[in-house]
Amino acid sequence: MLLAEFGSSGKGSMSYIQFLGAAGTVTGSKHLICIPRDSARGSSGLHPSGSKDALRVLVDCGLFQGPKEWRLKNWTDLPVPARQIDAVILTHAHLDHCGWIPRLYKEGFQGSVYATPPTVDLCGIILPDSGYLQEEDAAYHNYRKSSKHSPALPLYTLEEARQSLERFRAVAFEESVQLAPELSFRFVRAAHILGSAMAEVTVSTNGERRLLLFTGDIGRVRNHRTAPGKVIHSGPVGGESPDVLVMESTYGNRHHPEQDVMPELASLINATVERGGTVVVPAFAVERTQKFLFLLKELMDQKQIPAIPVHADSPMGIHAVKIYLKHSEEFSPEARDLIRRHGSPLEWPGFHFAATPEESKRINQMRYPSIIVSSNGMCVGGRILHHLMQRLPDPRNLMLFIGFQAPRTRGRLIRDGAREVKMFGQMVPVRARVAALEQFSDHADVDELIQWLGTFKKQPRSTHIVHGEPDSAEALRQALAEQLQWQAETATYMEKVEVR
Ligand SMILES: [Zn+2]
After folding, report:
1. With 60 as the cut, is the pLDDT of residue 189 above it?
2. Ligand 1 centroid to 371 CA: how many Å?
3. Which residues fall within 8 angstroms of residue 140, CB to CB, at 6 or more apart?
4. pLDDT 10s digits, 90-114
5. How far is the CA of 106 from the centre of ligand 1 (A)?
6. DSSP assigned state of 480
7. What is the mean pLDDT of residues 36-42?
8. Which residue among 176, 192, 300, 472 is buried most deeply as judged by most CB within 10 Å?
9. How far is the CA of 57 from the centre of ligand 1 (A)?
């Protein structure tokens, strides 16, 4: 169904989904479900000030990140006023899925944001941090006079992000929530990050029911093979049978390595220790850092690496550890056993958590072999920069990448072999060794996606591919056609598709 067929009069009585983000790119996830109401029926939504002509629910409300042409869309108004959005159903706590919620709130959104309990907790640290970074960004542009707006304003502030948290409502996995007579939903496990869910949305209109499945980001289906010592989540849930499937395609054209990461990691660390060097690991503070710490602990306990000091240098990482342990029900049985055996990373001997900037700077003076895990994961900002300044020029050290490095980021340049990188206005030589381990991905690759779809009870009436760069979305579309004989469509930005 093409956009033009809906007309612009708004008279159509068809329910539709409109892709307001993560269509043609991997960020800015926002999918609007609109269910028109005839005026005779009136409003029955939960939200008194919401629009009466339709029920409008956003699945995810993420920030555009990466290339400027997409980032600028963070400043674009939605096609409907924020106050006409009745609710947000949030799949998980990554910024490209939740990072626009404070802006929606700032624009007048008065509904609730529904998320799983761990997602609510994680958003409690991630969104204020994002607000802080937005303010810093604006301050930087004002200092450099590098914005055409004067003064440059933040997309939202730390305080606005904090206030938006009051709108969050925790919903347990598999608990059904009737948002309005026309719409109910429940969360099922996605196994992507802590708290991550897929949203099963039931739309009931004119005596007909349609099940919509929004996958959010889909976790590893075969994780246990690649990282036996890693904390992994159970899921993703199989046996779905949606009428409409909206699925991600981040790695729709990729195959993750299948070999166990432990021996390779151990040999990289051991070689660095023998040189008298330090291993510097840029890692996202939430999820990746915690999983990596457990791997290190497991390797040390098995005497595969020496018990050298480990510095986790990220204040957000400390909060995230606590949230992790609070929600241990999230993990696979093997991971729960790992956590039971090792307890809290905050209490492990030899593992140091730098909360304050002073503690962070003190790490710079340490000259014996150690492991420094710090954010941000792509070396575009944060405390990792100080560690790079200190450690990149020394050939004894190792820069170890365990996460995705987006094109044109400092992390990508180093990983791809740059001889020097610019930091704090000066060129820093890269003499340290550089390695990258690909096994840590939290997204299913194409084979895993096909394997998961193979558990479906039936082929959906329509499948819409989102959340992927054009190449990977197209590769997944082709793989579905060839391997499952499924006809899928690649979603385009602002496109509306009928719920049928
Ligand atoms: Zn994600």
Report:
1. yes
2. 26
3. 146
4. 999 999 999 999 999 999 999 999 9
5. 24
6. I
7. 64
8. 192
9. 20
Strands, E, within 193-274: which ranges?
197-205, 208-214, 244-248
- Could you tell me what percentage of the chain is helix, strand and coil, using 3-state DSSP and rounding each to the nearest 5? 35, 20, 45
Using alpha carbons, select from 223, 230, 299 the residue that is nearest to residue 266: 299
Cα of 467 to ligand 1 centre, how many Å? 10
CA distance 56 to 17: 10
Q: What is the C-alpha end-to-end distance of the chain, expressed in Å?
A: 10
Q: Cα separations (Å) of 189 from 139, 219, 486?
A: 39, 9, 23
Distance from Cα 283 to the centre of ligand 1, integer Å: 15
Structure token pair of residue 497: 């598709």
59 has which bridge partners?
Answer: 31, 89
**CA of 19 relative to ligand 1 center, distance in Å:** 17
Instruction: Say if residue 137's pLDDT is above 90.
Output: no
Give distance in angstroms: CA of 26 to centre of ligand 1: 10
Compute CA 134 distance to the chain's CA centroid, rounded to the nearest angstrom. Answer: 18
Task: Please name the amino acid found at residue 270.
Answer: N
Residues 335-368 pLDDT 10s: 888 889 999 999 999 999 998 989 999 999 888 9
Q: How far does residue 192's CA lie from ligand 1's centre (Å)? A: 7
Report how far residue 2's alpha carbon sits from residue 144's, in angstroms, rounded to the nearest whole number: 45
Please give the DSSP secondary-structure letter assigned to residue 461. Answer: S
Q: Find the largest Cα–Cα distance for the chain.
A: 77
Instruction: Specify the pLDDT at position 228.
Output: 60
Q: How far apart are CA 61 and CA 95, in angstroms?
A: 9
Q: How far is the CA of 317 from the centre of ligand 1 (A)?
A: 17
Q: Which two tokens stand for residue 215?
A: 């996958």
- 166: helix, strand or coil: helix
Interior angle at CA 452, CA 326 and CA 187, nearest 5: 40
Predicted local distance difference test score (pLDDT) of residue 272? 98
Distance separating alpha carbons of residues 196 and 250, to the nearest angstrom: 16
Q: Between the CA of residue 156 and those of 239, 280, 434, what are the distances in Å?
A: 40, 32, 37
What is the structure's pLDDT at 151?
81
Ligand 1 centre to CA of 63 (Å) is 12
* SS3 letters across 281-329: EECCCCCHHHHHHHHHHHHHHCCCCCCCCEEEECHHHHHHHHHHHHCHH
H/E segment holding residue 498: strand 496-498
pLDDT score for 330: 84
For residues 177-197, give the mean pLDDT.
95
